[in-house]
């Protein structure tokens, strides 16, 4: 048990970003956590953390040990959850990843309602527009907008979604309204590098997927910035409906090529393939499914 306590202290300190923060979060003394981490390093014969007064970072050995140790602790926590009463109130730290714009707008009220419902759960919500490796980064569940499945992960559908291709009225006046996706090859387009396929936009014709290479004056890693560029007439854009619909309603963007847009886009809750699913994760996913059943994403 002593060894497990040392390992857990090491993971808690790094997750919290320092000894003081970990002590506050977990109700332990800073001195005890420091002793546990030092004892662990002495036992392993290697430094795991670089410590300064302002910053804490992992050594190369520490990064490797953290990945395995955090996964091991999560498996132990998941196992405990299956043994204890399944009706017990969800509790503990829950790490969630989601796209930034979706998280800041559509997801925020849903997930904060979940916290109000389960006050013993604490949340580490990471909003970023990049592909997150759930296992390496210790994420419990990621919200992804996708049609693809990763065989090493488990995905549960949360809600249906769709995409919009649009352009400003001024751009359509200057270049005309395309009637077929292939026409986009010769038209200015805004490329969101977070989009699956990036500058190869996918459409459907006669039941078959077609890929159209596009180019234009702007490449950006933010769908919100891509929308703003399109509203200013810089090019056509592909956007998720929750970002496109307000601009369409205001007249800033006009939808085009709607008959060729792919279907099957969904909001998915994705989590690592584990034998035991933690109760806090199951409770969050159930909450999301129930919420979006009555609050569909436009």
UniProtKB/TrEMBL annotation:
This protein's name: DNA-binding transcriptional regulator, LysR family
A GO molecular-function descriptor: sequence-specific DNA binding
Family note: Belongs to the LysR transcriptional regulatory family.
Pfam families associated with the record: HTH_1 (PF00126), LysR_substrate (PF03466)
Keywords assigned: DNA-binding, Transcription, Transcription regulation
Keyword DNA damage included in the entry's annotation: no
Domain HTH lysR-type: 1-59
Gene Ontology process terms (BP): DNA-templated transcription
